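Supplementary notes for students who missed Thursday's class. We covered one full example, reproduced here. Read the sequence, then the structure, then the short commentary at the end.
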Amino acid sequence: MLIKNENRIPLNQIQHADSIYLSEIQELDHELFRSFGDSILVDNNLTRKLVSFQASKSRSYYRWYKFKEAFSADLVEYIFNKYHFDSGRILDPFAGSGTTLFASADMGYKSTGIELLPVGQHLIKANLYSRIGNTKNLISELESFLSEKSWCREGERSTFNVLRITQGAYPEETCKKIQRYLSDIRKNANESQQILYFALLCILESVSYTRKDGQYLRWDYRSGRSNGKSTFDKGKILDFDSAITGKLSEIIKDLYDKNIDENLLFKVDINADDSEIELLSGSCLNILPKLSENAYSGIMTSPPYCNRYDYTRTYALEHAMLGIDEGELINLRQSMLSCTVENKKKELLKINDAWSKALSICDNTPLLQKILTFLEYKKDKKELNNAGISRMVRGYFYEMACVIQESYRVLSKNSYMVMVNDNVRYAGVSISVDLLLSSIARDMGFSVENILVLPKGKGNSSQQMGSHGRDALRKCVYVWRKVK
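Structure (token representation):
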């Protein structure tokens, strides 16, 4: 089903001084929308459940850790069935929890993932450990550890790292049991130790006073952290015993149910070039230029959205438990794709001077430049709710252009690049991320096969709605193909 462009800005809701900017942005947006013709389609098979973690909640392995930013394995299967992906190696430059890697491997592909955040790296490695080696021995060791419940008895404790933003995150009794648990898992073999540590990461939020809430951790009033000012109630805070018992039981059940033939297991070596699943740790801006040309038969990914979410903060409990200190957290934040207001400008040409092409394309994309000019104008008038928004939006598109350039280079001819992303809104203007990134991809040499739109758009933030009214924003899956 073809879609109409509904980026309409009620001029009676805006100041007259802004109306010229906004009407020009609206016209450029419509012009770019029309340039894609019938490539923009509403796909009624796409649902918010499919393009999020929700559809993975009932699937073995994928359900263990609730990585809210992930899309589902069902989506990977749907896309690979809808479009023909040649046999070979699949790449995900923003691997997250590894959904693309494992789902494509299940379909017979080799896969490579690039991931910056330590939490994502650990999730992928733990999932790999659960799929390799002697599954029967792993199950036996996990069952033995679970039956002993040694964390319930007095004994040695291992302290764990605490960040400023995680201080006091757990009830006192929970904290003691985490320390006992950490001490005891070190007595296990490497594979089971990795899974036991992973299980702990899976339950941290549920046994804490916190809840992940986009840009930060939200604190329950029972933490005492806000001196009685917070009334937020996250609901039931699980006790450590029931949480870890439930998680380990779930993992053991999935290992049983999967009933993997040990002669047909994935061949995995995190550092091997010919492994079926390969993890490269670091920023894709640094790693992509080092990959070989024409080496990948497909890309499926979901980059951080341009929505101010700071994953170094939302995953602070996990990063603290992984031993990341304050300085490392700051470095991670600056290494991420620019998606938070704290991101500083990256010297992209110093990373790779070949990216002058990507930067030039951005410089010559009229809609993008008009939006950036408008945001600077609003910043100068002190009418942005954060002065870093204009810098963030600029950084996001210029950095994504570099990612797109490298993706084109490493893809083999006629291969697809698929991306899940959301449109956003700042200072009353809807930013068509789908159109802008697809325009950049087209100028880079990609054929824009489709921009698949979810039947229902998403609303903007409550803060935005209060100032500018509700405006449905498109959530899309972009399908580009390298034709030359």
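Commentary. Residues 389-410 form the longest helix (22 residues). The CA atoms of residues 52 and 71 lie 4 Å apart. If anything here is unclear, bring it to office hours.
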